[in-house]
Amino acid sequence: MSICQGNLRKPLGVITPSDLDGSIPPINWIVKNFLPKESLVILYGEPGTMKTYMAIDLAMCVATGKPWLGLETTQTSVIMIDEESGKNRIIKRMLASMNGHEVSIGQTVPFYVTLPSGVDLGDRHWELIIIDAIQKSGSELVILDALADVMPGADENSVRETQPIFNSLRSIVCKTGVTLVVIHHSNKGGSYRGSTAIKAAVDQMICVKSTKGTKTMNLMIEKARDFDEHSIKAQVVFEHKGDCLEKFYLCPSSASEQVDRANKASKRLSDIQEKVIRFVAKHPNSPTSTIIKGCGEDLQKGSKEYEKIRQVIQVLKKEPHPFLMRTNIGGVRVEAKYSLSVPGMEFAKERAYEIVEEGFDDLDLDE
Questions:
Q1: Which of 253, 276, 296 is the last residue of a domain?
Q2: Segment 144-196, tens digit of pLDDT
Q3: From CA 324, how far away is CA 322, in angstroms rounded?
Q4: What pTM was estimated for this model as a whole?
Q5: Which of 253, 286, 307 finishes a domain?
Q6: What angle do CA 258, 261, 264 make, to 5 degrees?
Q7: What spatial distance separates the first Cα and last Cα of the chain, rounded to whole Å?
């Protein structure tokens, strides 16, 4: 049904009570419990809070369909409109993100980054260009870096001057169904910079704070129209080769703490412990007996050496060496199976062990 009366040039879409069946539409997610589909989002923080790194990591995970910070993603094409970092810096960061997520050179990944082009959302021509790019690429996630760069000459503190910009951003969301994340800066007081109309205009507002002297960040959802506000802690892992950033990725802070503890523990691992880790890296989801036989020749069940390796497996799955994780549910006469844990995988990569990664479908969680 539509309404088109009087001087209205365009019909208004209308829903009446008789059109409703009583069911509440579910929330569809780009990142489950963090980033809903068809939303206008502000992501803000002080300089140096690594918010652009976080946005690139998020985009790479969504474009490849990998979980982000342990949260399920909906795989889709992603556009990042870069009006701040510049060509050389964004290329370096993209390559480092590819290395961090094991995306090989030449691999097809639907992650499109536009180079600085003087985007001005005060000019409707740019709104149409962005909509056209979204429709042609089939993207459901767009990241814009940064707000100040796409409203040149406008006063962020003025409702009169910010409202047309956010009308344009909202129009992009409504016409394409994308989730549009706009990176913004904070003021001296730590809140977002600019008019209160900014917060009122968006569906979600995320504040990024980093602990000084660490690579830990806290992502605080300060406004969410469709779900409860909450926060997520993450760790940014940087690896350099000489003076160059070789790779980076985000992981949940709890996982990064496990990796740190595992790295310290790895200096004390015995040869047999390393042998077990090497075998499980190559043969994930292996039963205990298979691991034991794979680490020793012609071992008889119950022999001293057999029991020694069994004990090693028990040690490696516990603190302070959480290198293994059980992949099936225990029970009477159910033999335990093991794969590498997050820190175990990091250790294996560091040692350049041969690694076979199994999918969730390979884990015996229903046993």
A1: 253
A2: 999 999 999 999 999 999 999 999 999 999 999 999 999 999 998 889 999 99
A3: 6
A4: 0.69
A5: 253
A6: 150
A7: 52
